[in-house]
Amino acid sequence: MKISNLIYILNPFILGTFFVLFLFSSNLGEIIVPLEIFSLILIVTLFEAIIFAILFIIFRNLSKSSFSLTIIMFIFLSYGYFYDLFNQLEFLGNIFRHRYLVPLILLFLAFLLIYLKRKDRDFKSFSKIIFISLTVLIFINAFQIISFNQKTSTILSKNLNIEYEKNENSPDVFHLVLDMYPTNEILESRFNFNNDKFSEELNLLGFRNEDLKANYIRTMYSLPSTFNMSHFYNSGQNEIIYMKETLKKFHKSVEGQIANKLGYSIHEISTNDVKGFHSSFLGDFSRVFARTNILRVIDDSPIPFHNLWINKNKKYFLENLEKLNDISNDPNKTWTYFYSRPPHPPFIFNEDGSKNLNANPYNSFSEDLSDSWTIEEKNNFINQLKYVNKTIIEAIRKILSNSNNVIIIIHSDHGITNMSGTDKLINGKLPEEIYEELFSTISYIYTPEFCTKELSSIKTNINIIPSLLRSCFDIEVENKEDLQFWNASNEEEFILIK
Question: Which of 173, 391, 397, 447 gets the highest tally of CB atoms within 10 A of its CB?
């Protein structure tokens, strides 16, 4: 086959791969299953191959088929980006909506195909330019991805001068994180919901509750800082890389390393750690990718297609609860980390645990202060929270029925997310109501009687584990400063809140 013919064939396929890798390279550090990347590239490639075959039947010409497919795929794969861009331009009003854009795109493509069918044009030079440009872009994105993954990280636990003493009578430890779970005060003031029943049930089971403050307002920083008992703001790049790794590899964290040295079997149960079909084809990265391309039209519409993502989230939430129960029945000593995305959106559960088919689970909702949420969004959030309450209480009862020599920590990673930018942040200060909503977190702790001495002194999430280690294991780990940071972006840009 001639090189020119090969270029014709490869151009649209390189374009498809580029769009997947571009999105991946733009989200380095996020929890993304590598198999999902390859799966998406395969899906896009197969789709392109089918369209290419149809176009070749129409044109009987490699050059025209390749050129037209390249144009089609560029429009399809960039649709979501341009849709968001145009809709940010207020002066355009409601012109750029799916109901107008899609017919215009289809009309344009129809005219393009008719024009190419009638004209005898040679696209060799243009195809070479496209090939060179796409190849360069592919290499740039691949280099960014490889460079990021090859960066060395510093294992923070090696820097800790800690003496460990194994004790066969040490209690099991269950560290439960409920993403974006607000305090009762916030639920009452912002959502008009009284959550005292949940607190009362846990208190009757022997839990002590203290409202804490998050140190960071994003999960990707809040949880690693808690596991590793370290701040991001003054850490080196290697330490930051390491802490980000622990978000999806809990056993590598300082907490996990200490648990290992104490002789515990470490278990990680997380809605971010999904396997099988759903992780490859229906993970969160796939959903984001769908919103950047022509599938955005489907994703923005309340049709059964959303059932697939609802099923995925429901499936893994329920399976994780079963895993938690199974581990509590295990006679071996366990240190278990359990992360639940609910009550955080997407809204997938009704109060009774049935699927919420009325809410588009991935429709863009206002991740701003809760007062900006619609009544429907607030109701969906509360109904999902009620179901989380019920399932967590049931799980706790099962754990306690198997052993009372156990430590159970329940807390949230941050308050109601605010994505409105730094316009409300003036000289490191926030209005009090915004501060409370962003940083207020729940904390419920159950411990044997012998280790209660310091746990009431915890003020922020970063000192939960140090206090636990001192009180229950006689491991001297110093508290970190109870500092709180506004993270303005996914970069390491931390603004100290005064």
Answer: 173
Q: How many CB atoms lie within 10 A of CB 311?
A: 14
Domain of residue 458 covers: 156-274+295-496
Of residues 377, 382, 461, 373, the one with CA closest to residue 420: 373
- Read off the tokens for 312: 């995925």
Residues 79 and 182 placed together within one structural domain of the fold? no
Q: Is the dihedral of CA 462, 464, 468, 474 positive or negative?
A: positive
Domain co-membership, 340 together with 457: yes
Angle between helices 62-87 and 34-59 (to 10 degrees): 130
pLDDT grade for 180, boundaries at 50, 70 and 90: very high
* DSSP E strands, 207-303: 208-209, 212-213, 265-270
Say yes or no to pLDDT of 279 above 50.
no
The dihedral over CA atoms of 290, 291, 297, 300, expressed in degrees to the nearest 10, equals 120
Beta bridge partners of 426: 429
Give the single-character DSSP code of 476.
-
Residue 355 lies in a domain: yes
Separation of alpha carbons 428 and 443, rounded Å: 26
The answer on 363 and 471 residing in a single domain is yes
| Token pair in block for residue 324 | 């938690």
Contacts 24+ apart (CB under 8 A), 89-94: none
3-class SS of residue 272: coil
Q: 103 and 166: one domain?
A: no
Is 27 within the bounds of a domain?
A: yes
- Which range among 113-127, 298-312, 436-450 shows the weakest confidence by mean pLDDT? 298-312
Respond yes or no on whether the N-terminal peptide bond of residue 343 is cis (omega within 30° of 0). Answer: yes
Task: Please give the C-alpha separations between residue 330 and each of 256, 323, 326, in angstroms, as whole numbers.
Answer: 19, 11, 7
Q: Hey, is 220 helix, strand or coil?
A: helix
Query: CA nearest 22: which of 35, 37, 33, 12?
Result: 37
Would 280 be classed as within a structural domain? no
User: What CATH number has the domain bearing residue 418?
Assistant: 3.40.720.10
Q: Which residues contact 305 (CB under 8 A, 6 or more apart)?
A: 298, 299
**Looking at the structure, do residues 444 and 388 belong to the same domain, yes or no?**
yes
What percent of the chain has a predicted confidence (pLDDT) above 90? 26
With bands split at pLDDT 50, 70 and 90, how would you rate the model's confidence at 487? Answer: confident
CA 217, CA 414: separation in Å to the nearest integer? 5
pLDDT of residue 159: 53
Report the number of distinct structural domains present in the chain.
2
Q: What is the mean pLDDT of the chain?
A: 81
> What is the C-alpha to C-alpha distance for residues 391 and 271, in angstroms, rounded to an integer?
15
d(CA 454, CA 421) in angstroms, rounded, equals 37
90 and 196 in one domain? no
Q: Is residue 279 part of a domain?
A: no
Say if residues 12 and 66 touch (Cβ distance below 8 Å). Answer: yes
